[in-house]
Amino acid sequence: MILCALLSCGGEAAENENVVIDIERLALELSAGLPFDDELIRLDDQAVALKYAFGGDSAVVYAGSGATPEIVIAVQCSDPEAAADAVFKIDAFIKEQIILFTDYNSSQLPKLKTAYLNRHGRYAVCAVSSDSSDARTITESCETKP
């Protein structure tokens, strides 16, 4: 399911190569604009660096308590190729979460299987929510053209 989201955006990514996104604003708007069962908090930069290896120049992560897989990830990279690599790493993270939640709390699996994961120019964006369908719209509303 996640792979389908990545492949379906192939044509659109080229249109968005030169966008600029304030990842702080984007992550905050995703965390406020999507439905979450858990209360998400912004992780400090040191915690993000220690816990996640998504690559990129900087990342903003909002995460819950761990009882749910709900998370918002916005990664700024140096170029679109680095962002594609970050998307690959986030996809691997989500696949690991699917394995963990299969045994831990399988009722959460639909959130992981319908996660929003996409590259927007030199940015990687992910949202794991009970309904991530508005994630693209929210992300695009945070884009500016240089």
Structural write-up:
- The chain is built from seven helices and seven strands.
- It is an alpha+beta fold.
- It has one domain.
- It has a five-stranded antiparallel beta sheet with strand order 2-3-4-6-5, sandwiched between helices.
- A hairpin with a 7-residue loop joins β3 and β4.
- The radius of gyration is 14 Å and the shape is globular.
Helices and strands, with pairings:
Blueprint: H1 2-8, H2 10-15, E1 20-21, H3 23-33, E2 41-42, H4 45-51, E3 58-63, E4 71-76, H5 80-104, H6 109-113, E5 116-120, E6 123-128, H7 135-141, E7 143-144
Antiparallel strand pairs: 1-7, 2-3, 3-4, 4-6, 5-6
- The side-by-side strand order for the widest beta sheet comes to 2-3-4-6-5
Measured by DSSP, the beta-strand proportion falls in 15-25%
Structural class: alpha+beta
Order of helices and strands: HHEHEHEEHHEEHE
> How many structural units, i.e. domains?
1
Rg, rounded, reads 14 Å
Termini gap: 32 Å
Average pLDDT, rounded to a whole number, is: 89
Helix content: 40-55%
Q: Please give the number of β-strands.
A: 7
Low-confidence stretches are: 1-14
Biggest pleated sheet: 5 strands, antiparallel
Helix run count: 7
